Amino acid sequence: MDLGIRGKVAMVAAGSKGLGRAAALALAAEGCAVSVCGRSKASLDAVKAELEALGVPVLVVVADVAKAEDLLHWHQATEAALGPVDILITNTGGPKAAIFAELSDADWAAGVDSTLMNVVRMSRLVLPGMRARQWGRLIHITSLVAKQPYPLLTISSTLRAGLSGLTRTLALETARDGVTVNALLPGHVMTDRQTHLAEVKAAADHITVAEHFARTAAAIPMGRIGRPEEIGAVIAFLCSAPASYLTGQSLLVDGGLVQGTF
Fold it and tell me: Do residues 144 and 161 lie in contact, with contact meaning Cβ atoms separated by under 8 Å?
C-alpha cells in the first residue's frame, strides 16, 4: 500500500530509541525526510545511520524535549535543513513512577514539563505552518494508562488522559485545515522504559524481572509483549494520505489488554 507521504518532512521527538526510533524508521521507509531529536549524541548517531540507509534526508539534533528552548532550536534547525514540517510525532519520556502518597510538588511539576507542556510547545511550533499549507499530521505517543489508570503511574495516568483531551480539542480546531491530530496509546512494548517499569514493579512484588514479564504477557490476550516496530507501523498509517478522515482519536495498540468498550 502506498501511504502517500513520500517527500513529507517529519519531526520525531525522542526518536533515537524505543517507540520514537520505531516511528522514525517507519516514516523513513515510506520516503519521508526525518528529523530526530534526543539527549544522547551516540544514540542519535546510531539512528541517523539506520535512517540514512533507507535513502532519505536525515537530521539529528541533540535536544531535551522538556526544555522549551531546545524544542525551538530543533524546529528551526529542521525547517532550515529539510523544509516546512508536515508531520510531528510527539514522544516523551515517562514521568516518575510512584504511587500518589510518594509524589512531591516537584515530581508533579517535572512531570507536567516532561509529559504535557512539551507536547503543547511542539504542537504550537508546527501547527501554524500546517494549517497555512492545508496539510499536516500530529501524532501524540502516550500510553494505555490514559484509558486504564495504574496506581504506580499516577502522574502518567493523569497527564496522558489530559493529552487525550488535548488531542480531541486540537483535532476539532484544525480539521477544516487538512490537519489530523491523533493519539496513539501503546500497551506493554519492549523498550527501555518498559524494562525500567518492570524492575520497579518486580522489586515491589519481590519477584524477578523475568517473572514480571511472564505475568505481564500472560495477562495480554495476545499472550506476548509488543514490539516497537508494531507501534511504528500504526504511526505510519495514521500519518498517511489514506488516513485523512481519521482525527481526534486516542487509539489503543495494546494486544487487546484494555477491555473496555470505549
Answer: no
Q: What is the CA radius of gyration of the chain?
A: 18
Q: Do residues 100 and 27 lie in contact, with contact meaning Cβ atoms separated by under 8 Å? A: no
Q: What is the pTM of this model?
A: 0.94
Distance of alpha carbon 182 from alpha carbon 174, whole angstroms: 12
pLDDT per residue rounded down to tens, the chain (262 residues): 789 999 999 999 999 999 999 999 999 999 999 999 999 999 999 999 999 999 999 999 999 999 999 999 999 999 999 999 999 999 988 899 899 999 999 999 999 999 999 999 999 999 999 999 999 999 999 999 999 999 989 999 999 999 999 999 999 999 999 999 999 999 999 988 888 888 888 888 899 999 999 999 999 999 999 999 999 999 999 999 999 999 999 999 999 999 887 7
Cβ atoms of 11 and 89 within 8 Å: the answer is yes
Domains observed in the chain: 9-187+229-251 (3.40.50.720), 189-225 (no CATH)
Distance CA 137, CA 247 (A): 9
Pairwise CA distance, residues 181 & 198, whole Å: 31
Bridge partners, residue 251, by sequence = 184
φ, ψ at 137 (rounded to 5°): -135, 125
Amino acid identity of 9? V
- Number of Cβ within 10 Å of residue 62's Cβ equals 15
Q: Which of 261, 262, 258 is nearest to 226 (CA)?
A: 258
